[in-house]
Specification:
The protein has 147 residues and is of the alpha+beta class. It has helices at residues 18-31, 38-59, 106-114; strands spanning 4-12, 67-75, 78-84, 117-121, 127-133. Strand 4 and strand 5 (127-133) form a beta hairpin.
């Protein structure tokens, strides 16, 4: 079975667009009843905010001529966020220890605490993929339309 695309958004690399983009994506997830509590959506907002702001700031270097793509999938009770930018590849080992007190890496440290898996695809389309297992949910049996 193919993953269901719940949302796909392309935005200009401008931090001013971040809040409305996150609200838009979270609203789609709420309408699909992906989670049951507001706390779970809050954590997803944090994860998405960190991923997209990292892509804008560190990946695209705030270049408004570059875009960030965000795609959200659901497959077998796993919610996947895929974020791509047009920046240079970066060196990050998801299994490495991150220091929340260091100057760099606070966002990735936070993300690592809130998700089940981080995957970095180092290819032409530099992707950061975050997987979050949906617990206590019946959404794997739902058939969603593309948002």
């Amino acid at each position: 079975m193919k993953p269901n695309v719940l949302a796909h958004v392309s935005i200009q690399s401008d931090l001013k667009l971040l809040p409305e983009t996150i609200i838009y994506i979270i609203d789609i997830l709420k309408r699909k009843n992906i989670y049951k509590t507001s706390e779970e959506y809050f954590y997803l907002e944090l994860v998405l905010s960190e991923l997209v702001s990292n892509a804008i700031i560190h990946g695209n270097k705030n270049d408004k001529n570059k875009t960030v793509n965000i795609t959200v999938y659901l497959h077998n009770n796993i919610l996947t966020f895929e974020v791509t930018d047009e920046g240079e590849l970066f060196n990050f080992n998801p299994s490495s220890k991150l220091n929340p007190l260091s100057e760099c890496g606070k966002g990735l440290y936070l993300i690592k605490q809130l998700v089940d898996e981080i995957i970095i695809e180092k290819n032409v389309h530099k992707k950061v993929i975050i997987n979050k297992i949906i617990k206590n949910s019946d959404c794997k049996s739902k058939n969603f339309n593309i948002a």
